[in-house]
C-alpha cells in the first residue's frame, strides 16, 4: 500500500502539492487524475524518493521509498519513457538496470517478451517510436516483479492495440494483488481501467472514491426520450407536458430530448396520457469525462483563449452542468449498470445525498442541491458505500498565495 500523509511540496514560491493525504490499496487499479500542472508527477516523484517533501510524508508498505530494502524488487515505475540512454539497445538498457538491482539476465528477456519488444531488443532505443519507448519503460518497471507499480501516462503514444494491452496488463497486475497507481488524461481509458480514483487539482485532493461513485457524485443522470421523427408536433407536445409536470427538457443533437427531474415511469405515463408515442425512453449516466470536467473545471490552469467553434453533434455551451469553455457535451453518454435513476428522477430528486452539506467543488452547488446547469436536476446519490470512505473536497484556493515566502 502507498500512503501519503499531509504531503506538501513547494518549489520556491510555487506550491506544487499541498497537504495531500491518500492511500493506494493493493488489488485494484487506482487512477490518479488532475489537470495539467496539478501535481501528479510531483506526487509520484515524492512517492519514489526522487523529490523530498517540504512537509508531510509518503510511505510504501510502511517505509519511505529510500528506506525500502531492495526497493527495485518492491516498487517499479514508469515516469518518463524518454529517460533512456538512446545509444543503448533495449536489451542493454534493461540489462544495466537489472545488474544494478541484482536481477538475473533471464528476467530481461522475460519482460522484453512480455511487452512485445523481443524482435527489436537489439535495436538502439533512440530509433524507437513513442509507443515503443513506452513499452520499454513498462518493461523496466516490471523488471523486479514488484508488488507496487506506478505508471505516469502509460498509454501515451500507444496505438489502440497497445492501449488495450496496457489496460489488460494493469488489471492483471491488480488482480494478482499488486498495488497499481496510474495517472492518465484519457478519461475514457481510465473509466475502463481503474476501479478507484484519486483526483487532485492545484496540488490538493478533490476526490478519493470509486469510479462509479465519482460519476454519480459529479454528474447528473438523465432520461433520453425520442418521439417519432416524422411527427415533430409529438415532440413539442411532450416537451410542454413534461415541463408542466416539473421536468427539465432540452433537445439532444439528434432530435431526442434530454429530460431530468422526472422518473422514467412518470415520463412514460405522461406521454401515454398525452397520446404521444415514444420511440425511445432510456436512462443515461454521464461519462467519467463529463464528471471529471465538472469536478475540475475550477482547477484548470491552462485553457485556450479561443472560444470553441460550434461543431455538429456537440451541444452548444458545453456539457450538462454547464462547463465554461464549451466541453464537448455531445459525447454519447455511457450506459450505466444498475438503476440509479429512481433517485435522480423520482420524488427524491433533490433530497440530500451523502455529499449534501459539504461545500461543492469550486464553490459550485453542494451535492444534493439543484445543480445550476442547463439540465438542472441534482446528481444521483451513490447507490453503495464504497470500501474506502469516499472523500470529495471543496475548491482549493491557490496554495501558492498562502506560502509564497517559502523556499524549497
Ligand atoms: N522542479 C520544479 N521546479 C519548479 N516548479 C515545478 C517543478 N516541478 C514541477 N513544478 C511545478 O509544479 C506544478 C505541478 O507540476 P507537475 O508536473 O507535478 O503536474 P502534473 O499534474 O504532473 O502535470 P501534467 O499533467 O501536465 O504532467 C506545476 O506548476 C509545475 O510547473
UniProtKB/TrEMBL annotation:
SMART domains: AAA. CDD domains: ABC_BcrA_bacitracin_resist. Pfam families: ABC_tran. Residues 325-408 are annotated as: Disordered. GO terms for molecular function: ATP binding. InterPro entries: AAA+_ATPase, ABC_transporter-like_ATP-bd, P-loop_NTPase. Signal peptide: none annotated. Residues 2-227 form the ABC transporter domain. Residues 333-368, 385-399 have a biased composition (Low complexity). Gene3D superfamilies: P-loop containing nucleotide triphosphate hydrolases. The keyword Transport applies. The keyword S-adenosyl-L-methionine does not apply. Residues 369-384 have a biased composition (Pro residues). Keywords: ATP-binding, Nucleotide-binding, Transport. PANTHER family: ABC TRANSPORTER, ATP-BINDING PROTEIN. Belongs to the ABC transporter superfamily. This is ABC transporter ATP-binding protein. It comes from Streptomyces ochraceiscleroticus. The lineage of its organism: Bacteria, Bacillati, Actinomycetota, Actinomycetes, Kitasatosporales.
